[in-house]
Specification:
Layout lengths: L26 H9 L4 E6 L2 E5 L7 E2 L6 H8 L2 E8 L2 E7 L7 H6 L6 E3 L10 H18 L11 E4 L4 E4 L5 E2 L4 E10 L2 E6 L12 E4 L6 H13 L3 E12 L4 E10 L13 E6 H5 L14 H12 L1
The structure holds zinc ion.
Zinc ion binds next to loops.
């Protein structure tokens, strides 16, 4: 099994931000850049991000600045310093408690965007914008779920420019988390194993298997366990390919190729409604064979395409 390397960066990687972790605790500097009219704000509303041009299929992220900054912070449930972008500070702001953000947006200067589901846009956003939006979305998701301490139940307050939630009762510091999930293309000669789940957005879509890493488990063990649980197929050697931040809502996808040691498929109906071995010829013309591949912005698609190119 020859290793296959990533052909190009995955969507949601390649952030232009300098995360300036050492400066997060410089309160005077944070205060100054919060008020700086050149600072950029990345609004998120109920998991949706602010873009213009979505209807024309040319989405472009909108990052309000100037007088929009104080207006957004005034209604935000939380804000977090993301980092420095071309010498300008960038903050994520969570507007989720607003019932309808449209009137607020209408009052911001030079603002013609709307909140959209990032999954429908990521393939056509610029790589830099997609990465910044993913960062903002993932971090605000974490913030919204750590208002109280998991140790003692006390209220938490933000520290480090919003990048730490500190318990006001017991002092525990809670840090941003991202949940590791393995995603793997099982290969056997000229065929690969793909599954269909009723949870998929399209009835015809077949994709790589995936699952969360459990405590006390290596990534390789998680790959083998998930494949066995979902399809009954045994896997041998496992090779790393690449990873992808996946803010839907809070994962990092760790992509692998896994060598299939057996062929017989026994699906777990709780996870999958079907799984099959597909040939390269089938994968090169999915529509002609009655199925479709995962979305172009996904690491699942990248694993499949890089395997086909290597053949
Ligand atoms: Zn506590």
């Amino acid at each position: 099994m020859t290793p296959i390397f990533a052909s190009r960066p995955n969507v949601y990687t390649g952030s232009p931000l300098d995360r300036v972790a050492p400066r997060r605790n410089d309160a005077a500097w944070i205060e100054a850049v919060l008020e700086d009219p050149t600072s950029l704000f990345v609004p998120v509303w109920r998991g949706r991000v602010l873009v213009r041009g979505a209807a024309e299929a040319r989405p472009e992220a909108v990052f309000p600045a100037g007088s929009a900054g104080p207006a957004l912070r005034a209604v935000a449930t939380s804000w977090v310093l993301l980092g420095i972008w071309h010498e300008r500070a960038a903050f994520a702001v969570d507007l989720s408690e607003m019932e309808d953000p449209a009137p607020l947006l209408a009052n911001l200067p030079d603002q013609d965007g709307a909140f959209e589901d990032m999954r429908s846009l990521a393939g056509s956003l610029s790589a830099e914008e997609a990465a910044v939006l993913a960062h903002a979305k993932g971090l605000l998701h974490w913030r919204a779920r750590h208002r109280f301490c998991g140790v003692c139940g006390g209220a938490c307050e933000p520290q480090s420019a919003g990048n730490v939630m500190a318990c006001t009762q017991c002092g525990t510091h809670h840090f941003p988390r991202t949940d590791p999930a393995v995603i793997m293309l099982v290969t056997r000669g000229d065929r690969v194993l793909l599954g269909h789940s009723q949870r998929f957005p399209r009835a015809t879509m077949y994709s790589t298997l995936a699952g969360f890493v459990e405590p006390g488990e290596s990534l390789e063990e998680a790959v083998a366990r998930e494949v066995a649980e979902e399809t009954g197929v045994r896997v041998g050697r496992v090779h790393y390919h690449s990873s992808q931040p996946w803010p839907f809502p809070a994962s990092v996808m760790l992509g692998f190729y896994a060598e299939g040691l057996s062929e017989e498929i026994t699906i777990d109906p709780a996870e999958l409604s079907d799984a099959r071995w597909f040939t390269r010829a089938q994968l090169s013309q999915p529509e002609a064979h009655g199925f479709s591949l995962p979305r172009p912005d996904s690491i699942a698609r990248r694993l499949i395409e890089d395997w086909m190119a290597a053949g």
